[in-house]
Structures are given as C-alpha cells and as structure tokens.
Amino acid sequence: MSDTVTPKFLGENSPLPSSPEEAELDYVPNPRAGQLFMVRFAAPEFTSLCPVTGQPDFAHLVIDYAPGETIVESKSLKLFLGSFRNHCGFHEDVTVGIGQRLFEEMNPKWLRIGGYWYPRGGIPIDVFWQSGAAPEGLWVPDQGVSSYRGRG
C-alpha cells in the first residue's frame, strides 16, 4: 500500500450516505505499522431507528482497535455512523454489524465495540463484541461508559 494515499472524504463536501450499505469507509496506511497500539473512537450521540416502531434509538458507541496495516479515516467513520440515522435495526444487529464491518474491511490486529444503548421500554441494552482476545502487551483501558443508572 502506498504511503501517499489521499483520503477520499477529508477536506471534501461529503453528504451523509442514505444507508450503511451506501456508506464507504476509507482506510489509509497505518503511519506506525509494526507498532502495537490502540485507537479509540467514541460516538456519544449515535442514533438508529427501531425496526418495529420506527422511533429513534440512541446509544453511546465506543470502538477500540489495534491497527494492522491500515487505520480507518475518521471522517469516513463519522459518515458511516451517521448513515444509521435512517437505518432500522435492533441494538444487537447494529452494534455487532458495525464492529464486524470494520474488522472485515480494515483487518486490524484486534477490534472491540461497546454499544451503550439508552432505555426503550424502560430497559437499557448494552451490546459488546470483539474480534477475539486482545494481543499480548496491548494496553486496553476500560471504555469509561457507566451502565445506565437513571437519574441517580
């Protein structure tokens, strides 16, 4: 992979894709290939739609990964996550689907996603997925999102 890859969306006027399937994730060469480190993305205002009622569901997503040869370009990730605003899916399908797509396309050494969903029907749902055990020696801090506690 060339070190002079130009990201497709960075610095461009990029409309929000209408669906996750339409969204294109952009990957660029890892500037520290060969090093073991972790990258974290937090999306505290993630939204998708309930597949039964069509009402919005809200979550705080945390994506952690140890890059391999590539890293995900953050603007393309933002557009991809935003494309779920009109997507109907259960919390489990949405959370795991995001993690699996990133893992399959980017091929990192390791990836995990935590979906901390706000209550619907009085029940908060937290969904977690990871590609496997974290590589030995990787610093993996707590995701820092508390389970839902209501008002206090």
Task: Provide the fold topology.
Blueprint: E1 27-29, E2 39-49, E3 56-66, E4 70-72, H1 74-82, H2 91-106, E5 110-117, E6 126-130
Antiparallel strand pairs: 1-4, 2-3, 3-5, 5-6
Organism: Qipengyuania xiapuensis
EC number: 1.7.1.13
Family: Belongs to the GTP cyclohydrolase I family. QueF type 1 subfamily.
List keywords for this structure.
single chain, 152 residues, alpha+beta, four-stranded antiparallel β-sheet, two-stranded antiparallel ribbon, 2 helices, 6 strands
Structural account:
The chain has helices spanning 74-82, 91-106, and strands spanning 27-29, 39-49, 56-66, 70-72, 110-117, 126-130. It has 152 residues and is an alpha+beta fold. The strands form two sheets. It has a four-stranded antiparallel sheet with strand order 2-3-5-6, covered by helices on one side. The longest helix has 16 residues, at 91-106. The chain is globular and about 50 Å long. It catalyses: 7-aminomethyl-7-carbaguanine + 2 NADP(+) = 7-cyano-7-carbaguanine + 2 NADPH + 3 H(+). InterPro entries: GTP-CH-I_C/QueF (IPR043133), NADPH_dep_7-cyano-7-deazaG_red (IPR050084), QueF (IPR029500), QueF_type1 (IPR016856). It is found in: Cytoplasm.
Distance between the termini: 51 Å
Radius of gyration: 16 Å
How do the strands line up in the largest sheet?
A: 2-3-5-6
Structural class: alpha+beta
Low-pLDDT parts are none
Fraction in helix? 10-25%
**What profile does the largest beta sheet have?**
4 strands, antiparallel
- Provide a count of the helices: 2
Please tell me what the overall shape is.
globular
Total strands: 6
What do the pLDDT scores average to? 93
> Helices and strands, in N-to-C order?
EEEEHHEE
> What is the strand content?
25-35%
